[in-house]
Design a protein that fits this description.
Elements: H1 8-25, E1 30-31, H2 34-44, H3 60-72, H4 78-100, H5 105-124, E2 125-126, H6 128-147, H7 160-169, H8 171-189, H9 192-196, H10 199-218, H11 222-235, H12 238-242, H13 252-258, H14 274-283, H15 291-299, H16 306-322, H17 324-341, H18 349-362, H19 374-396, H20 406-413, E3 419-424, E4 442-443, E5 461-466, H21 468-473, E6 482-484, E7 491-494
Parallel strand pairs: 1-2, 3-4, 3-5
Antiparallel strand pairs: 5-7, 6-7
Helix pairs in contact: 1-4, 1-5, 2-3, 4-5, 4-6, 5-16, 5-19, 6-7, 6-8, 6-18, 7-8, 7-10, 8-10, 11-14, 16-17, 16-18, 16-19
Length: 500
Amino acid sequence: MELKQFSRFFTFWMIWAALALLFVSFLPWRFQVNDDELMMWLVSGAYTGTTESFAVFLHPFLSWSFSKLYFFAPSIPWYPITWFVGMYLSFLTWLRTLEKMALPKNQRLLLTLLLFGFYIHFLFFLQFSIVSAFAIAAGWVARWENSRDEKKKSSLFPSDVLIIFGFLVRPIVLFLFLFASLGIWWCWYRKSSLAKNLALPLLIGIVGGITFWLWVSTQNMQDIKEVNRLRSQVFDHPVLQLQKDQFRDLYPDLYHFSNGLIDFHTHPELTDKLPDWKDLLDQKRADVVNLLGIKAALTTFIAHEHLLLGLFGLLLVFSFLIQPKWTILGLGGLLGVLVLASPFVLIKVQVYGIIFLVAMVCTPLIPSPKSPSDTLINSLIFISISVLAYHVYSFTRSTENLIPGDDLRIDLAGLPPNAQTYLIGKGDYYRDLLFDKPLPFQLLGWPTLLPTTQRKDEGARNFYFVDSATYFNNRKYFLHLERKESRSSMILLASPSCLD
């Protein structure tokens, strides 16, 4: 029986998802990582003065599209709007798919609550890898469910647009889902019809990868791409980020780099150190292959993600109730993969987010030998609602932690006209300036490496706004700078050329 165009279930959650998006947009939401901020500034022209069509991590087609949108309508924040809309459409696709699945109503409600919690959390902390994973997972599970309908002969579905979108946002995420889906197919189904569903995503990945390579080659961006690849491999190296202190005295430049303090603009020779740093860190990989190292790798970037951990725990309990064998095997397999990967990959929050989405794709597909009692499922629903209610309440209090940007604006306005200004700190400090065009500052340690951003005036005056934690943990780095008075909560430092 076909679904009604707008069932009550779908309409209810569609409205709630829209209200949540509107609600979060008026709260101090933020990008979870500097990469999103920098890519937004690049494509909008805020960072270099010209809209750039290459944003390093995005597929060039998407970054080129952003640059054109900003060129014709620069006052519209296209970048975050796209992420918000992508998350919303992905959630609606999940809803449609859950409606089609042969699930009891209370189980469908539980899975919807878990998805809704994930959705609102990562609206508040936008991160491009999560946006990509949420879209791909939604398109993926919709594709698998549609393929079960014998009446649908088409191999293309509207939800496939989300897979393409997710690939353009973060190409590597699509290949992670391909790998996971191959595992799901091998463990549970081994049916040719489901294996064929991997063909289109694989084709998207292959064609997209070829176009990425062609664009980089024809635009002569190979060197920029290689330097950014090396920079990411060094900065996100597990040995460096999990054992920073061992490099403080022997390799001070590497230690400062790990805290985002390398200025490639004024010290371009540091770029040449990246291959040596990568080799050094690779040689020290064995240092993290022990119980303490593995524990640090698995817990460092998840310790404060209480909601994500709670959602994951509820999903595991539900999965265990319907199929304990596969839940134990699946959890053991995922932990095994994480342990084996921990010396090679920094296990960040987005990695856990992607794993959660993979589990969300798997759980409804697990062949269930038994149906849990309504009492158990309703208890999980009650716990989920309580967790989400507390999380929403916490969001409403988030404005109390907002750092006003008025004083920072005054400090920036008081600097000399030819000043080169750097900000060193979390996005909380400059959130009020996030959408300024042009930006009155640059982020130290995260240059675009594009020709238009290279310094033309070596005599320009340098000023540095530094958060106190970074300043006191890296005192040696700032010894040659003079401290100035500042109205903002950040520490203002000036280079020697500013002392006349």
